[in-house]
Specification:
about 180 residues; alpha+beta; 6 strands; elongated
C-alpha cells in the first residue's frame, strides 16, 4: 500500500485536474496534473465544494465568460489508504478546470463514479502508470464536455449576432419606409 501520501503527478494532460481522497486521516491530493493551480487544489480539498460546478445565469455565462470554470464531482466511498490512522471511509473527488454544461458535468460525474475505485486502488498500490491509465477515460470525457460547451458558446454568439443584425435591418427598413410616406 502507498503510505507515502505523495500525489501522482500526471504530465501532458490537456485538462488541468486534481483527484482527492483519504490519506492518513485527511483528504489529500491523490493525483494531479503538473500544472494544477492552487485555486484548483484549494477547491479540491474544500469540503463544501463537493459535487458542484460554477454557473451563473447559464445562457449569459456562455456568452460572456472567457475563463474556464472549476468543477467538482464525487466518486464512491473508499477506506483510508492508511487504515491504522483512520478506519472511516471517505469520498473521492475529481476537480477540473474547463468549460462544461450541467449535462457535461453529469457525464464526467458518471465517468468518475465508474473509474474512481480503480484510480484509488492504483494509487494505494503505488502504480503511477496505472493511475494515469485509469484517469485517461475521465480526461477524455472532460475534453468532450469542454468542446461541447465551447461549441455551444460559439453557436449562441453566432445567433445573437445574426438576430441582432436582422433586428437592426428590419428596424432600418421600417424607419426608411415610414420616412418615404
Amino acid at each position: 500500500m502507498n503510505v507515502s501520501g505523495r500525489a501522482v503527478v500526471i504530465k501532458n494532460s490537456p485538462i488541468e485536474f486534481v483527484v482527492s481522497g483519504p490519506v492518513g486521516g485527511r483528504d489529500r491530493i491523490i493525483a494531479r496534473t503538473e500544472d494544477a493551480g492552487l485555486d484548483l487544489i484549494g477547491k479540491a480539498v474544500h469540503r463544501e465544494s463537493r459535487e458542484s460546478y460554477e454557473r451563473s445565469n447559464f445562457p449569459f455565462s456562455l456568452l460572456l465568460e472567457h475563463s474556464a470554470q472549476l468543477n467538482t464531482v464525487t466518486g464512491g466511498y473508499v477506506p483510508d489508504s492508511r487504515s491504522e490512522v483512520d478506519d472511516r471511509d471517505s469520498m473521492l473527488a475529481f476537480t477540473w478546470r474547463g468549460h462544461a454544461t450541467s449535462h457535461g458535468v453529469r457525464e464526467v460525474a458518471h465517468a468518475f463514479r465508474t473509474c474512481s475505485s480503480d484510480i484509488y486502488m492504483a494509487y494505494c498500490y503505488g502504480d503511477d502508470q496505472d493511475v494515469e491509465l485509469q484517469v485517461s477515460p475521465l480526461i477524455y470525457q472532460c475534453s468532450l464536455a469542454n468542446d461541447k460547451a465551447v461549441r455551444s458558446r460559439r453557436m449562441m454568439r453566432f445567433f445573437l449576432v445574426a438576430y441582432s443584425l436582422i433586428g437592426l435591418g428590419v428596424s432600418l427598413w421600417y424607419v426608411f419606409k415610414n420616412l418615404g410616406n
